[in-house]
Amino acid sequence: MISEKEARRAEEWIQEARRLGAKVVYGGKRRDSILEPTILIDVKPEMKVVCQEVFAPVISIIPFDNIEEAFRQANDTKFGLQVGLFTSDITLAMRASQELHFGGVIINDVSTYRADIMPYGGVKDSGIGKEGPHYAVQEMTDEKLVVINL
């Protein structure tokens, strides 16, 4: 991870989830700034690994009975950076792009997908504005109208 401090933070969130009833089915160990990819089950909505932006190789598996419930659970957060959905159903993919309230809806790839030529950024409490070359230039430019009447 970016630093040992952040790896420790993510490890603490994993341990907190364990204390609250989650099970680690893969990974969960840290050595210095390296955190093993981690898969959690039996998580609850109030656990930090679920309701905060963990920014670590941590996945929480949350079952659902129908796609409406899955979309509701996904949208039931104050964050909204990106979301990934795997499907071969183009109608579902288009529906997800409309109904999921995130800065990016990534179909058939993980939510960390990024193409620097495209805008990258979230909605809700996942930041303001977008990143990417076009947006960086725009943010660092003071536009000015100059009118010369001769």
Describe this structure as you would to a colleague.
The protein has 150 residues and is an alpha/beta fold. The protein folds into 2 domains: 63 residues, no CATH class; 75 residues, Aldehyde Dehydrogenase, Chain A, domain 2 (3-Layer(aba) Sandwich), CATH 3.40.309.10. It has 5 helices and 7 strands; from the N terminus they run αββββαβαβαβα. The protein has a 3-stranded mixed sheet with strand order 1-4-5, covered by helices on one side. Strands 2-3 form a two-stranded antiparallel ribbon. Helix 4 links the parallel strand 6 and strand 7.
Please state roughly what percent of the residues sit in beta strands, choosing from under 5%, 5-15%, 15-25%, 25-35%, 35-45% or over 45%: 15-25%
* Biggest sheet architecture: 3 strands, mixed
Number of helices: 5
Structural category: alpha/beta
Shape annotation: globular
Multimeric organization = single chain
> What's the CATH architecture of the largest domain?
3-Layer(aba) Sandwich
The total count of strands amounts to 7
Family: Belongs to the aldehyde dehydrogenase family.
Domain Aldehyde dehydrogenase: 1-146
Keywords: Oxidoreductase
Protein name: Aldehyde dehydrogenase family protein
